[in-house]
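question for whoever is on the cluster today: can someone run the full assembly for these? two chains, 634 residues total. i dont have access anymore since they changed the login thing
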Amino acid sequence: MTTVTATPATAPAKHGARKVRKRGDRSPAASLALHLTLIVTSVIAVFPVLWVLLTSLKPAKFASTTDFFKETTFENYTNLIKDTEFLSWFGNSVIVAGLSTVIGVFVSATTGYAVSRFRFPGKRGLMWTLLVTQMFPVAVLIVPIYNIMSTMGLLNQPAGLVITYLTISVPFCAWMMKGFFDTIPREIDESGQVDGLTPFGTFWRLILPLAKPGLAVTAFYSFITAWGEVAYASAFMVGDENLTLAGGLQKFVNQYGAQWGPMTAASVLIAIPAALVFLFAQKHLVTGMSAGAVKG
Amino acid sequence: MAVHTSQSVAKAAGDDVARGRSRGTGNPPPPSRLRRALSVHWYAWTMVAPVVLVIGVIIGYPLVRGIWLSLTDADERNVARSIGVNKMPATYEFVGLDNYADALTGNQFLGTLGWTLVWTVSCVTITFCLGMALANILNRRIAGRSAYRMALILPWAIPGFVSVFAWRFLYNENNGLLNKMLGGAGIDGIPWLNDPTWAKFSVIAVNVWLGVPFMMVALLGGLQSIPSEQYEAAEMDGATAWQRFRHVTLPGLRPVSTTVVLLSTIWTFNMFPVIFLLTRGGPGEATQILVTQAYKFSFEISPRDFAQSSTWGVLILVLLMLFAMVYRRVLRTQGDNW
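^ ran it for u. tokens below:
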């Protein structure tokens, strides 16, 4: 790059004139600027969520006041649980999201492993299909999928939603897992085979335990996808007690019109499990993604 | 990328030997190619089978049916349906490419496409730049790094419909916090979601808010995989901070950034929930993107127009596939083997 014309003797002298800083050190002003940037962005990131939480703790009639706290109460929560089917929606969502996560992780892991390790006819096509699947607009799929589900008798059943959610989350997760498996040295597979493990045995006993960060990210992604999906959930599930949270909240918006109190309480209760899964996954998130999504 | 595992090579080779021998001794004809392929690849195929099956049924069939509907004049009044006990057979007809001709020559599709492109490009660009800046800051040694990281990833952890709801709450024209704060400062309230221009601004803002965490986490992972020796070497050569960013960080992030840009372009182009839950495409049709409009055709207008909805859906798919192919072609000419 730049040609160094200064002789070695003069270089330190020149440095000495300014304040010498080690790599990674920075001036207090720079530190302050960085912290300010981070604080401002963190506030923007957290505030909408925090505001919903604070609002849910105010009595419904004060929902649109700007005070942070006003007569803190849990009445929005108790009303929500007493007056609506919230708990059964919640249970339905747990079943649907839980199943989608478990099956989704398993299926994307096997697919990702096959694509990462083996060369087989149809592999390129499969990779393309996984990418193209993500381009499909919900609007085109929703009516035909509805018809399939009704033919198979899966409408209003958690299984129908689980299968649909797999088609959303698995393509991305399989890509991510493939990238992750690519970073695990092949020698490990080979040593497994030397020890007489079948390809499945190698995968199950040697590779999966090493792929935990990748699996954590996959689980997180599958869970969030299933937990927060609206369009299919409201189309496939009918009847008050069959709804998932996403569908339930929609109903709720109409039912309560412009009353924000109960809705904010519902939002908080919906966000908690997602945040818990997130907490569990977050320490793996960066490593998992770096190996995964990334090298696709 | 993928190389034969030594095992599958050995297996394939062994297979060839066996085959040669059997031919030599004049035994029954060698197993068919399919059988042979099956014996070599069966475990790979078994491992991908569930995905292929589910995608084939749940995506393949609807796709074929969608393409078929887009070539007909199907709408709510002429598809097969049952009224009480009477079953009405489908009476819609094949109309060839008429729907496509209508869509591509009319103003509605092209107008919506224009806004969809503006929406996609601005969302992806802003999200990428913010994600890049934050990832670079978080990659330094800085006090409270993990707390900042948690806070910044939070929007990703909250279900989309909850955060969109939170934003609607903030944007609310009369009672929303944003306008109350503006009011407190003596500024007139802004019709965040009720004025076409402001609504466009608002939906982009929300989508950026939702999208930054993914971008940031992916890029942060990429940054951590760049060896620090490269920075040290650059510094030895006297590179300034900007030059280090330009010539070490950016090339090092290339594999990550090409993938996340491709994915987030696809996702943003089809970002149904944000638009649908925030504005329903309104005011008027101001924030309607192609997907939400296609949804509207088949669910919200009367009579429901399945043919036109499918036509738009197929066009969306074609556009995105063209984009992905051009994108990959460009990458390949620049030396990526992806």
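summary bc i know u wont read the tokens: Confidence is low (pLDDT under 50) at residues 1-17 of chain A. Chain A touches chain B through 104 residues (CB under 8 Å).
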